[in-house]
């Protein structure tokens, strides 16, 4: 059974930081591209950051320079370090695992991030 379990969300003030974690089980983690998505109320889910199996990363423009995605294959975990958070970062953040060759993709249950003064 595949599970992606996110943690680390919460309520913070603008300018503060959070670190999200996503622990995967039931998959060969090292051969999956891992992504972080978010969905704000009334909006579509959007890709925030991705890290490939080779460690290459990419970010949506609005988080470049503030967010950093990383992975620890030994711990089957992907991280999203979020600095200088803004109210517009408020959303449910989801972890995604994607295996390009097979097309298999899996989602976590999401973790709420709220940025408010």
Order of helices and strands: EEEEEEEEEEE
Distance between the termini: 40 Å
- Main sheet summary: 7 strands, mixed
Radius of gyration from CA coordinates: 13 Å
Categorize the overall geometry: globular
* Helix run count: 0
Q: Describe the oligomeric state of these chains in a short phrase.
A: single chain
Overall average residue pLDDT:
97
Range of helix content:
under 10%
Strand content: over 45%
Quantity of strands, as a count: 11
Runs with pLDDT <50, length 5+? Answer: none
Structural summary, described in words:
It is a single chain. By secondary structure, the protein is mainly beta. The chain has no helices and 11 strands. Strands 2, 4, 5, 6, 9, 10 and 11 form a 7-stranded mixed sheet that branches. The chain has a 4-stranded antiparallel sheet with strand order 1-3-8-7, with no helix packed on it. It is globular and about 40 Å long. The chain starts with a strand and ends with a strand. The mean pLDDT is 97.
Q: What is this entry, summarized?
A:
By secondary structure, this protein is mostly beta strands.
Write the layout of secondary structure elements.
Layout: E1 3-7, E2 10-12, E3 18-25, E4 33-39, E5 46-51, E6 57-59, E7 67-72, E8 77-82, E9 91-98, E10 105-107, E11 111-115
Parallel strand pairs: 2-11
Antiparallel strand pairs: 1-3, 3-8, 4-5, 4-9, 5-6, 7-8, 9-10, 9-11
């Amino acid at each position: 059974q595949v599970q992606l379990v996110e943690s680390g969300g919460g309520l913070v003030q603008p300018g503060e930081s959070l670190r999200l974690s996503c622990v995967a089980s039931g998959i060969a983690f090292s051969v999956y591209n891992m992504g972080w998505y978010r969905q704000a109320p009334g909006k579509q889910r959007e890709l925030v950051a991705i890290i490939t199996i080779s460690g290459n990363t990419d970010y949506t423009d609005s988080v470049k320079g503030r967010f950093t995605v990383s992975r620890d294959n030994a711990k089957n975990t992907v991280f999203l370090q979020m600095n200088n958070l803004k109210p517009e970062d408020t959303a449910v953040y989801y972890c995604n695992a994607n295996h390009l060759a097979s097309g298999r993709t899996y989602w976590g249950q999401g973790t709420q991030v709220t940025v408010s003064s």
